[in-house]
Specification:
single chain; about 230 residues; alpha/beta; 8 helices; globular; tRNA binding; repressor; tRNA-binding; Large ribosomal subunit protein uL1
Length: about 230
């Protein structure tokens, strides 16, 4: 077993074993225990009391974080020529259609989000095997298949994220950077958790929010008291 570095020991000392922190406390603590030289992402993991194998208990949605993600999101818009100018003016990094479809078929996926129009989905369907496993396939539920591509681009650039529960019943996503102040991290976490609560399936029984953990890219997880969610 590898020895802990001095910084790792300092971080470990700041977390009280077995303690569940309030969201406010955790938002400051995640900054205090992160010693990376780069601006680490702040991640949240929420275990839900659902059975994701059942279609009526699937949890998937989008949320616009009040303070954004802190990340530079590379956006590709696959659209008709008449929508290209609006997409570019909205901040899309790549705009086009057939040339990018061919690039993707060749293995290019150097983007974070792909936005398209309903009329284009027929052409994109064949890319499912490439885009699906990477979480890049446009989907009407996530707002990435729309007639108003410019609006969709602006929302993504401003901090709109798409999330989906995994096979274990856990929703994992990044909600900011450690360079954010504690209040910004807390605000983003509150908005994300509030959105999850709104999406609670009617078929879900018992405790819905089972556990919440906050962490940074290379830090230990900080357990959050689910009851502190009541503050939201």
């Amino acid at each position: 077993m590898s020895k802990l570095t001095k910084k790792q020991k300092l971080a470990a000392e700041k977390i009280e074993a077995g303690k569940a922190y309030s969201l406010k406390e955790a938002s400051q603590l995640v900054k205090d225990i992160t010693f990376t030289k780069f601006d680490a992402s702040v991640d949240i993991d929420v275990r839900l009391g659902i059975d994701p194998r059942k279609s009526n208990q699937m949890v998937r949605g989008v949320v616009s974080l009040p303070h954004g993600t802190g990340k530079v999101t590379r956006v590709l818009v696959l659209c008709t020529p008449d929508a290209e100018v609006a997409a570019k003016e909205a901040g899309a990094d790549y705009v086009g259609l057939d040339e990018y479809i061919e690039k993707i078929k060749g293995g290019w996926t150097d983007v974070d989000v792909i936005i398209t129009m309903p009329s284009i989905m027929g052409k994109i369907g064949a890319l499912g095997r490439i885009l699906g496993p990477r979480g890049l396939m446009p989907n009407p539920k996530s707002g990435t298949v729309t007639m108003d591509v410019a609006k969709a681009v602006k929302e993504v650039k401003q901090g709109k994220i798409d999330f989906k529960v995994d096979k274990s019943g856990i929703v994992h996503t990044s909600i900011g950077k450690v360079s954010f102040n504690a209040d910004q991290i807390r605000d983003n976490a509150k908005e994300f958790i509030a959105t999850l609560i709104k999406l609670k399936p009617t078929a879900a029984k018992g405790t819905y929010i089972k556990s919440i953990y906050l962490s940074s890219t290379m830090s230990a997880g900080i357990k959050i008291d689910p009851k502190s969610v009541e503050e939201i």
